Amino acid sequence: MRFTKMVATGNDFIVIDNRGNRHGAGDRAWSQIAKVLCARKTGIGADGLLALEKSNKADFKMRVINADGSEAEMCGNGLRCAAMYACGRKKDLKIETLAGIYEVKITGRQQVRIKMEEPMGLRLNIDIKVNDRELRVDYIDSGVPHTVVFVQGLDGMDVDSIGRVVRYHAEFGRRGANVDFVEMIDDENIKMRTYERGVEGETLACGTGAVASGIISNRRQGTGDKVNVHTKGGVLKVCFKNKNEKITDVYLEGEVKKVYAGEVDYV
Fold first, then answer.
1. What is the pLDDT of residues 176-235, one digit of tens each?
2. Is residue 71 located within the same domain as residue 94?
3. Which terminus of the chain is more solvent-facing, meaning fewer CB atoms within 10 Å of its CB: N or C?
4. Which residue among the candidates 38, 81, 206, 239 is catalytic per the annotation?
């Protein structure tokens, strides 16, 4: 099974091109393949697996299989990796996901921009109990569900232990939500660390998390409609329009790199 390892601003993925249906993997097979290949110590190691398939609606379809074998509706940084992998000479692509069809543009040698769907389900100032303490969070679906928590002293936070509790909180339903911890820098810059659903731990970046954090920072903290989101993996650029509290024209842009390609025996 041939694969390509790619990284988008710190989020790493294993890309498997199944547009020719050479692998014929069903849902359960992809889940098991992802668990084996994404394992950091015994596999290739990645936050998730991207399976590219044929589409009759777009240039191709991207399936996102998390490291734990669960399937996500979409992934912003995964979309950017898939586009860079498959673009060839094209600069503009349409990619089908479980969350809809996304327009993606190659803007530079290692730069990719996505036109995101309009966010849904915005809820501000939700009070929940975490480890016997009250915590105020915000919620938005930016393609996948996210909670945003504004903090001070982000660098010293125990993201895994707090994030795990918030991620599974009953307030956010059976499937839970990703958790973004955000610290303000200024009106155009924020810092973000994310506990990611499906990875079940902190990742170096999260594209949909950057979008969620940028939009909620605008609503809660008065940042502009162009926000640089600083993550451990690098900077993601988020821009959007906010007219009469309606968010439209949402874009996510950042760096994408091909790390290496190879072949792996999968049993």
1. 999 999 999 999 999 999 999 989 999 999 999 999 999 999 999 999 999 999 999 999
2. yes
3. C
4. 206
Whether 220 contacts 175, CB under 8 Å: no
pTM across the whole model = 0.91
Whether residue 206 lies in the annotated active site: yes
Exposure of 34 in the CB half-sphere (CA atoms within 13 A): 27
Residue 267 reports pLDDT greater than 60: no
Average of per-residue pLDDT values in the chain: 94
User: Quick check: is 239 catalytic?
Assistant: no
Domain count, the chain: 2
Residues 228 and 151 in one domain: yes
Q: Which residues pair with 63 in a beta bridge?
A: 51
Examine the domain organization and report whether 150 and 99 are in the same domain.
no
Whether 61 and 151 share a structural domain: no
Q: Is 158 exposed, middle or buried (0-12, 13-18, 19+ CB in 10 A)?
A: exposed
| Distances, alpha carbon 243 to alpha carbons 58, 162, 212, in Å | 30, 34, 17
